[in-house]
Design brief:
Blueprint lengths: L7 H7 L20 E2 L8 E4 L5 E3 L8 H5 L4 H17 L4 E2 L23 H16 L4 E7 L12 E3 L2 H8 L1 H6 L6 E4 L3 E2 L2 E2 L4 H10 L5 E3 L8 H7 L9 H12 L5 H22 L8 H15 L1 E5 L10 E5 L28 H6 L4 E5 L14 H9 L3 E7 L18 H11 L4 E6 L15 E4 L7 H9 L13 E2 L17 E3 L8 H6 L4 E3 L10 E11 L2 E10 L5 E11 L10 E10 L4 E9 L5 E3 L4 E3 L3 E10 L2 E11 L2 E4 L3
Parallel strand pairs: 1-4, 4-5, 5-7, 6-8, 6-18, 7-10, 12-13, 12-14, 14-15, 15-16
Antiparallel strand pairs: 2-3, 8-9, 11-16, 17-19, 20-21, 21-24, 22-23, 22-27, 25-26, 27-28, 28-29
Helix pairs in contact: 1-10, 3-4, 3-11, 11-15
Bound molecules: alpha-D-glucopyranose.
Length: 664
């Protein structure tokens, strides 16, 4: 559609959305776009009550984004995007409002379950693959929330105060990498960034477009626009949902000359381009995967992303063992226990979820006692003491604990990192009488320090989607070999996390005083021990790293090394490559993830891994030069199985911009 065919009035209307979920179509003069949440399953609203509460159609639930990130597998992200595209095509949705890539600055953030990681590279790479999968199968993506939406506290108003270097090295990077997949849209954040509302963040929008190559349309978050004229001038193309008051003021400002036609055209053209691009993207596309196949994808991703945090050999469970399964999460009465609340919630009506049932199918003798409920202990329906008795009579106690939408939700942050007391007590009671395997269903880091050293094994199960109970049972029984790795650090205590110590300048400002020291960047640099490190995850196999070779030239360093499976059991390993500047000219964290690869290695076998580190892998953002700078000096390349488990090291030297290797 040529913009010349639209009147000024139509252009003003076009950039304000039609209603809650559609763009304006002028009675069929333009195609109408339909948008819908969310990152882990389609939330197409069936009805919206007067109080704003919404009922969505049931949809295929996929693993939480955090569980997807724990796979460290770009192929899983691409598969999930592809399956979601099929859901969108079926429901006639043009744009899925996903993925969310905000950095997990504090483990308390209520929306961490729908974000990828504390590390910008991992978040960006997984989001890029997710967007590729979505868009190549016919549905547009909406990369969100740009930017610094890293807490839910006062989310519509509070200002994230971040220095430019930290923005560039941490908070922008997931968007920079994900934009390589050419998402059709980006959604702004509600919060302010250094005092400017996300909907009016012109400086950021210019970086997106001029430096990150973003060529789509910028949406507002829902009702994030306070001044449509100011947001238009900043370059925000589409306000959602339609707001009569904002629209009237916009028209008045245009009529009174406060908006130039060229400014209006710039936004209207990008909305027209969005419409035609989405229609083209969908042209001729039909769902390629049956619902059963999509559900199988959800189950496969869950099995890839669940993380074995601790294991004294109790897992995998011995065949035919007597198991005391306890905890209401093992057989949830309310599927809200297996998800976070808000825009990312999926209606899982009719979903069955039974860990006891899945274990019984695998030949185990299983007793089950809820022991506690989502709200504590309802003594008429749960019996914590009986759970301990059953544990005492079993070979192994499998305790299913967790959080859920009461604790993890949009618009509120968590109050604590710990599990509810009734759950901690159930764990300790079980550990006192039997080898205890704790399965944690949560969407973010949990402080396990009160009980982790008293149990035999811990499996972090995230918020699994369809088939999550089968995925879990397949890992507990040894049918599948766990291969997930943590995409965020699990601190020993909230007090250890720099962001959680934020004192704030005022009620409305959150100072990112820790700068680039986010997550493992802080813990490893300042030698703060964590419970489980970023990148950590155990397997039923064991891996050794050897024969690191490197070649350096003017463009960077090419690495290759071998990962050998020293067990007889096949398994997958996530090889991680970090870089450390030995004597930097500015402050730099002791290590930063710069490459990773997930590989399958058969029992007793070895696989060669080849990765390359370009100049940017050694660069820092220079506030003095307002650009990326590779400083001369010595750098270490650290290859390992987690941010705290480094296996191979090689030093490189940069002089005059040229790379050379230190002699071995
Ligand atoms: C919400 C969320 C955003 C979501 C949108 C539409 O408030 O912040 O992630 O896509 O509104 O529901």
């Amino acid at each position: 559609m040529d913009i010349k065919k639209l009147t000024a009035k139509e252009k003003l209307r076009l950039i304000c959305g039609k209603d809650f979920w559609h763009t304006e179509d002028f009675g069929g003069k333009l195609p109408k776009l339909t948008v819908a949440d969310g990152p882990v399953g389609l939330r197409v609203v069936k009805q919206r009550a007067a109080d704003g509460s919404e009922t969505a159609y049931p949809a295929t639930p996929y693993p939480s984004v955090q569980l997807l990130a724990n796979t460290w597998d770009r192929a899983c992200a691409r598969k999930m995007g592809a399956a979601l595209a099929d859901d969108c095509l079926e429901r006639d949705v043009d744009i899925l409002l996903a993925p969310g890539v905000n950095i997990k600055r504090t483990p308390l953030c209520g929306r961490n379950f729908e974000y990828f990681s504390e590390d910008p590279l991992l978040a960006g790479e997984m989001a890029k693959a997710y967007i590729l999968g979505l868009q190549e199968n016919g549905a547009g993506a909406c990369l969100k929330h740009f930017c610094c939406n890293n807490l839910e506290y006062d989310r519509l108003h509070q200002s994230s105060d971040v220095d430019e270097r930290t923005l560039r090295e941490i908070y922008y990077v997931p968007f920079e990498i994900a934009c390589e997949a050419k998402p059709v849209s980006v959604m702004c954040s509600y919060n302010r960034i250094n005092g400017t509302y996300g909907a009016e963040y012109k400086k950021g929008f210019v970086v997106l477009r001029k430096e990150f190559g973003f060529d789509g349309a910028i949406f507002s978050d829902w009702s994030a626009v306070r001044d449509r004229t100011a947001s238009l001038k900043a370059g925000l193309d589409l306000e959602m949902p339609f707001c009569e008051e904002n629209y009237q003021k916009l028209c008045k400002d245009f009529e009174e000359g406060r908006i130039a036609e060229a400014e209006l055209d710039a936004c209207a053209e990008r909305v027209l381009e969005l419409i035609s691009r989405c229609k083209e993207m969908r042209e001729g596309k039909k769902p390629r995967r049956s619902e059963a196949e999509r559900r199988r994808i959800a189950q496969e991703i869950a099995a890839e992303g669940m993380v074995l945090l601790k294991n004294d050999g109790t897992l995998p469970l011995a065949a035919g063992a007597r198991l005391a399964v306890a905890g209401c999460y093992a057989q949830p009465s309310d599927m809200g226990m297996l998800r976070g609340a808000g825009a990312a919630a999926v209606n899982r009506e009719g979903e069955a979820f039974s860990v006891p049932g899945c274990l019984e199918k695998r030949g185990y003798a299983v007793t089950f006692e809820p022991a506690f409920s989502y709200d504590g202990i309802d003594s008429f329906h749960q019996d914590a003491h009986r759970a301990a008795e059953l544990a005492a009579e079993s070979n192994v106690s499998v305790l299913c604990v967790g959080l859920g939408e009461k604790f993890e939700r949009e618009s509120a942050d968590r109050e604590t990192l710990r599990l509810p007391l009734v759950q901690e007590r159930a764990i300790l009671a079980s550990a006192a009488v039997a080898p205890t395997v704790v399965v944690v269903f949560a969407g973010a880091a949990v402080d396990m320090s009160a009980w982790a050293d008293k149990v035999s094994a811990i499996l972090f199960a995230g918020y699994p989607g369809a088939g999550g109970d089968e995925a879990l049972a397949s890992l507990l029984s040894g049918e599948n070999n766990p291969c997930g790795r943590l995409s965020e650090s699990f601190p020993r205590s909230l007090a250890d996390c720099p962001a959680a110590r934020e004192d704030g300048i005022s009620a409305g400002v959150t100072r990112y005083a820790e700068g680039p020291d986010v997550g493992y960047r802080y813990y490893s640099t300042h030698h703060v021990p964590v419970l489980f490190a970023f990148g950590h995850g155990l397997s039923y196999a064991s891996f050794a790293y050897r024969d690191l070779t490197a070649e350096a030239d003017e463009n960077g360093v090419s690495l290759s090394f071998e990962v050998c499976n020293t067990s007889e059991r096949a398994g997958k390993e996530v090889a991680q490559v970090y870089v450390r500047a030995c004597a930097p000219v500015v402050y730099r964290p002791a290590r930063e993830l710069k490459a990773f690869e997930k590989i399958f290695v058969k029992g007793g076998g070895c696989e060669k891994v080849s990765l390359s580190l370009g100049r940017r892998a050694f660069a820092h953002w220079s506030a003095a030069e307002d650009g990326w700078r590779v400083s001369d000096g010595a750098y270490e390349i650290l290859v390992g199985a987690s941010s705290e488990d480094i296996r191979l090291v090689r030093k490189v030297w940069i002089k005059g911009g040229r790379f050379s290797l230190f002699p071995l």
